[in-house]
Amino acid sequence: MSNVQISLRKDFSKTGTGKTVTSDMICRGEGLKQLFKSDEGIKFLKPIRGTPPFWQKTQKDVLAMIRQIGIPAFFCSFSSADLRWSEIVESIMMQQGIAVNADELSWDEKCKILRSNPVTAARMFDHRFHLFLKNSYYVRCPSYWKSKRLFLQG
Questions:
Q1: Could you tell me the pTM of the whole model?
Q2: Residue 118 contacts by C-beta under 8 Å, 6 or more apart in sequence?
Q3: I need a labelling partner for 140 at 20 to 30 A (CA). Which of 12, 33, 87, 129 fits?
Q4: pLDDT at 128 over 60
Q5: Torsion over CA of 33, 39, 42 and 47, rounded to 10 degrees?
Q6: pLDDT averaged over every residue in the chain
Q7: Residue 89: beta bridge partners?
Q8: Is the CA virtual torsion 66, 71, 72, 77 positive or negative?
Q9: Domain residue spans in the chain?
Q10: Residues 6+ away with beta carbon under 8 Å from 121
């Protein structure tokens, strides 16, 4: 059962005004149009990452955090460049017993290798991220970071 099916069963039985959603309401063009006009036609997608309702909820959470804690002094967003970091691909190939230079592989072959072991790729990214924090932020101003809150969300 997918997240969408679970979300449909949990959330999509009543509209925001309390009316029960029926098959007749969905089959009628006007009822369906009204559901989508008020964003109730897609609100069941809120727990699915990447959907518009998910990002609306995330935006509201960030704004609430800013209201309670204050404006962040420093904000940074990170993403993995795992296809460009040859040591991640080489590490996974070594685990699988493949003896080829990672730089000679095509983009599709690298993707296939990374998909075969996402745990190692995630752990190596996490290791790089923590090394970055350790060597850049904490070393330069250790007393500042001890006195401030640090939020990491992954």
A1: 0.49
A2: none
A3: 87
A4: yes
A5: -170
A6: 75
A7: none
A8: positive
A9: 3-69, 86-147
A10: 80, 82, 88, 92, 114
